[in-house]
Amino acid sequence: MNICGILVHAQPTNFDAVRERLLSVNGIEVHGMSDEGRVVITLEEDDENAMADALHKVQTLEGVISASMIYHHNEDEV
């Protein structure tokens, strides 16, 4: 299981639409949004390739200015 924390900078004028687009990406949870357009999300995926694909999808969503991974944890299943 891979879990990462991502800081998203989004256009603050379209928060609701950006939030819905983020939630459309499999494995995403939105944890907080600021008035300035910062959004804290987590992403959970089983493998690193799927995680990289999901991060790229977030980075290219309409209304997203940038998305940076700020934390990553990989835990092998027993």
TrEMBL record:
InterPro entries: Chaperone_NapD_NO3_reduct. One of its GO terms (cellular component) is cytoplasm. Its main location: cytoplasm. It comes from the Bacteria. Pfam families: NapD. GO terms for biological process: negative regulation of protein transport. Keywords: Chaperone, Cytoplasm. GO terms for molecular function: signal sequence binding. It is found in: Cytoplasm. The keyword Cytoplasm applies. Interacts with the cytoplasmic NapA precursor. Chaperone for NapA, the catalytic subunit of the periplasmic nitrate reductase. It binds directly and specifically to the twin-arginine signal peptide of NapA, preventing premature interaction with the Tat translocase and premature export. Belongs to the NapD family. This is Chaperone NapD.
